[in-house]
């Protein structure tokens, strides 16, 4: 007996069968949940037993992306900006700054 396609719920015949994420799919039904881009065994990302493309993989932003040095740097930068820019707006321009710029005033 042939299994059912997890996407369109029709029978999958061996010739078009894709076995992935513990389910069976027509090769043409194995597409990104978000953009419907055609996927294959090499480029899909499984999440919640559903296939996603690289761009739409839901947890990519939390795990894969956050781990890269570039993104850690960007994250640190944006945190720094959000904490530093706010007080510098309320602070008088020069008076409370030690050293360098004091003589400038
Ligand atoms: Zn199908
Ligand atoms: Zn996608």
Automatic annotation (TrEMBL):
Checking InterPro entries in the record gives: LIM-SH3_domain_protein, Znf_LIM
The record's subcellular location field reads:
Cytoplasm, Cell cortex; Cytoplasm, Cytoskeleton
Residue ranges occupied by any LIM zinc-binding domain in the UniProt entry? 3-63
Which keywords belong to this entry? Acetylation, Actin-binding, Cytoplasm, Cytoskeleton, Ion transport, LIM domain, Metal-binding, Phosphoprotein, Repeat, Transport, Zinc
Q: What is its main location?
A: cytoplasm
Q: Which GO terms describe its molecular function?
A: actin filament binding; metal ion binding
Domain of life assignment: Eukaryota
GO terms for biological process, alphabetical: monoatomic ion transport
Q: Which GO terms describe its cellular component?
A: cell cortex; cytoskeleton; focal adhesion
SUPFAM superfamilies attached to this UniProt entry = Glucocorticoid receptor-like (DNA-binding domain)
Could you tell me which PROSITE patterns the record lists for this protein?
A: LIM_DOMAIN_1, LIM_DOMAIN_2
Q: What is the purpose of this protein? A: Plays an important role in the regulation of dynamic actin-based, cytoskeletal activities. Agonist-dependent changes in LASP1 phosphorylation may also serve to regulate actin-associated ion transport activities, not only in the parietal cell but also in certain other F-actin-rich secretory epithelial cell types.
Tell me what this protein is called. LIM and SH3 domain protein 1
């Amino acid at each position: 007996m042939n299994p059912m396609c997890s996407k369109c719920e029709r029978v999958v015949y061996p010739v078009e069968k894709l076995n992935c994420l513990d389910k069976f799919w027509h090769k043409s039904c194995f597409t990104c949940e978000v953009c419907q881009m055609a996927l294959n065994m090499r480029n899909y990302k499984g999440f919640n037993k559903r296939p996603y493309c690289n761009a739409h993989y839901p947890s990519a932003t939390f795990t894969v992306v956050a781990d890269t040095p570039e993104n850690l740097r960007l994250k640190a930068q944006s945190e720094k900006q959000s904490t530093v820019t706010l007080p510098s707006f309320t602070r008088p321009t020069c008076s409370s700054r030690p050293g360098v710029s004091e003589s400038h005033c």
